[in-house]
Amino acid sequence: MNFSDVNISNLISGLLPNGDFEKGPKQSDIKGTVVKNPHALPHWEISGFVEYIKSGQKQGDMLLVVPEGAYAVRLGNEASIKQRVRVIKGMYYSITFSAARTCAQEERLNISVAPDSGVLPMQTLYSSNGWDSYAWAFRALYDVVEIVIHNPGVEEDPACGPLIDSIAIRALYPPKMTSNNLLKNGDFEEGPYIFPNTTWGTLIPPFIEDDHSPLPGWMIESLKAVKYIDSDHFSVPVGKRAIELVAGKESAISQVVRTIPGKPYALTFAVGDASNACAGSMVVEAFASRATIKVPYESKGEGGFKRAVLRFVAPGNRTRIVFYSTFYHMRSDDFSSLCGPVIDDIRLLSIRKP
């Protein structure tokens, strides 16, 4: 692949060139489903056992699902795809892509933009569609970067790897504290790309604790992912974006904020549901250092929210704010998709002593 093949110039938001893989290899470069030429897939360079999969294709008794469109790629053992893109040096970016498990038991993916890299676990399927969309972020250290998605699997069947589809990029603008909120990005308006015309949101993977979070200002300090949702497809309390806590106490977000020791503060936030058939008795737990509150919310799965406040006195010059859901929930329309309460419009302000 020549860099001149990549028609991307400081792309701020959208699919990478041929990010949906609808442009396929020439028939002479493919044998069955296996792509034989490293440069056969337009705008991409491949390595290892890579298959070009058509929607509805079967592998034995298993039907292979393609998240969007008609085609996707499947990465076998140690296979990878990569593309060089032009970016703005010093800026933060988020990569969003869709992936579906096939026959491997311990599937995971490595994603990297040198010198950053991350491992995205795929053992948990959050939706009943057969696939999920994931986000990962990096800071561009160069004007041209190479995005690599790699399957480190060691399955006996080299074809037992994940399907990859719809790879997009979005520039991130890290928010700052304001006079109205000591928390950064408390409204969650800054975050990863969400694919239009999709109904499953974007997962922000667990163990995201560094400065390159796809949810600027927040850390995902849990065993499971949280879901980033938008008002085009879900009920959102305020603005365009919010977070759905989809895995009980294993799905948590946190932020460390500067405070003044001994000064009282008020942490306000909205708790609701995404209008996605996630019904039942929900509880969101919020922590500000040692102060806690449990906020019950009776969800009918049809949207709506309530507000809550946690008042506390800062014990030090830094206070850790944490949110998670007390219980696990499943959508009532399919009984297999993980779901949970929505949190949004989180604000932290100092208050006068009584």
TrEMBL record:
Its main location: secreted. Residues 14-170, 181-347 form the DUF642 domain. Pfam families: DUF642. The keyword Protein transport does not apply. Keywords: Cell wall, Glycoprotein, Secreted, Signal. The keyword Secreted applies. It is found in: Secreted, Cell wall. It comes from the Eukaryota. This is DUF642 domain-containing protein. It comes from Carnegiea gigantea.
